[in-house]
Amino acid sequence: MDLVFQDAEVVDGTGAPSYRADVALDGGRIAAIVKEGAAAGCQRPTARRVIDAEGLVLAPGFIDMHAHSDLALLRDPDHGAKAAQGVTLEVLGQDGLSYAPADDRTLGEIRAAIAGWNGDAGDVDLDWRTVGGYLDRLDTAHGGRGIAVNAAYLIPQGTVRMYAMGWADRPATGAELDRMRALVAEGLEQGAVGLPSGLTYAPGMYAPDAELTALCRVVARYGGYYCPHHRSYGAGALTAYAEMVRLTREAGCALHLAHATMNFGVNKGRAGELLALLDEALAAGADITLDTYPYTPGCTTLAAVLPSWAHEGGPEALLARLRDDATAERIRHHLEVTGSDGCHGVPMDWDTIEISGVTDPALADAVGRRLDGWPAARRLLLADRLGPTILQHVGHEENVRAIMRHPAHTGGSDGILQGAKPHPRAYGTFPEYLGRYVRDEGVLSLEECVAHLTSRPAARLRLPDRGRVREGYVADLVLFDPATVASGATYAHPRTLPTGIPHVLVAGEFVIEDGRRTQALPGRAIRRTPVA
Q1: Which residues does the UniProt record annotate as the domain Amidohydrolase (predicted)?
Q2: Which end of the chain has the smaller Cβ count within 10 Å, N or C?
Q3: Does residue 182 have a pLDDT over 70?
């Protein structure tokens, strides 16, 4: 064998009770598991290297069901933000906006629209135009060596709409809808695992339900899933959740609700209403999962909170509207008085908005500050050309706890790695679950929490040999100390790495060894498993 972990406490990802065992790896897979007290004659496995795992939990590698590492994996071979947490697979293309499929026009617009998530991309050669091309680029990144951890991709509905019909705020024509269906099918055939939407982000938010249902029917044919950031997490949250359940059931498509929570003052203590809605749909036969991060603030771009009509025509059109005093006053009225659809129908409370990043270094003094009103927001949007990212302090701890207990729950960081002061979830989500919510506060048992972070997301992704500690499975593994594992990331110091996670392996190779990042790049693009 290549490697044996001796006397590990195995939490296998199924939710079953843990057990002590020796776990042997060979050829990038789990070759043997010999439980303590195995029948006489069953010898302990031997290997070229043996590691004493006494006191450590050995679990499947964690799957980040909502990541924004689309360019970070290509830009930074280290990618310690995720590797150090025990993440061995990230799902990209989230919130309906990413870089494939695209043509030259679309790529330019996408770079501007999501610079706050991924930077302006000027340091990355965007030489692909298709989903398959992007996945191939992940496989051959960093001089052909690959990437730090594995990555799957969702074909983004907003990007598809932008490609097919630009930034028009209207229903698609028949020809445009046909073009979108063809792009979605092509992306799924090339390896995408599903379709995400950002229904508070332009231009995806302009799509009516009939259009989304038509695209979900294509996704269903390929065995993928629909992953919406739905139309409201605020004033219309329950209606928005019900809309997603209804249209996916009509399309016969699996549903995975992105960063599913209930935010803003109107939803304090209302998580039970959401869970009752989901339980009723599940009992009726719906296929539903969801992901959350274990924090109360959200994180997005400052431009995203503006009303949808202001985005029509694309980033340059939005900047022109912001420069015009009369139009800017109209935007302010929608934000502060009526409640912008970009801000979930809730009138803006500027005290909840904290700048977490800018793209222009000359504006760095803005980071960490709360906005003191629309004039300051407008000036910053224009000066940074829509680049600022924000923390939005609008969540409720009781809602976070209630939702993470649900059997359909999985873990997702929604980690935006850009900015001088990013949300700590980017560096801390998975150890935060294990340390605070399992060990310190007992919200979840260790076995149940690991299942939420491993086998349940693997099942949603239809991965036949990942997400469990089982013989024959790919050796994507994490070893952590249950007594010390903790997130080091805080709001003041958000890039601090976690503690208590000494070893992380991707396909049997150490990406974290003895608590330090190795130079290994064993990660690859994980393509959709074809429907049998």
Answers
A1: 49-511
A2: C
A3: yes
In terms of phi and psi (left: phi > 0; alpha: psi -120 to 50; beta: otherwise), the region of 183 is alpha
Q: Are 149 and 84 in contact (CB under 8 A)?
A: no
| Structural domains of the chain in order of their starting residue, each with its CATH number | 62-296+395-424 (3.20.20.140), 310-390 (no CATH)
In this prediction, residue 10 carries a pLDDT of: 98
Q: How far apart are CA 224 and CA 255, in angstroms?
A: 9
Tens digits of residue pLDDT in 78-111 = 999 999 999 999 999 999 999 999 999 999 999 9
DSSP at 504: E
Q: Identify the three-state secondary structure at position 512.
A: strand
Q: How far apart (Å, rounded) are the C-alpha atoms in residues 162 and 279?
A: 35
353/243 Cα distance (integer angstroms): 28
Number of CB atoms found within 10 A of residue 134's CB:
29
Q: Give the neighbor-by-neighbor strand order of the sheet with 62-64.
A: 62-64, 87-92, 150-153
Per-residue pLDDT, averaged over 273-300, amounts to 97
Nearest to 463 by CA among 414, 524, 418, 516: 524
Please check the confidence at residue 2 and state whether its pLDDT lies above 90: yes
Q: What is the mean pLDDT of residues 401-426?
A: 96
Q: Which residues contact 18 (CB under 8 A, 6 or more apart)?
A: 9, 10, 11, 12, 57, 446, 447
- What residues have CB less than 8 Å from 441, skipping those under 6 apart? none
| Sign of the CA dihedral running 354, 356, 360, 365 | positive
Please say whether the beta carbons of 480 and 500 come within 8 A: yes
Note the pLDDT of residue 490. Answer: 97
* The pair of three-digit structure tokens given for residue 280, joined into one six-digit string: 């009723």
Residues β-bridged to residue 250: none
d(CA 331, CA 229): 23
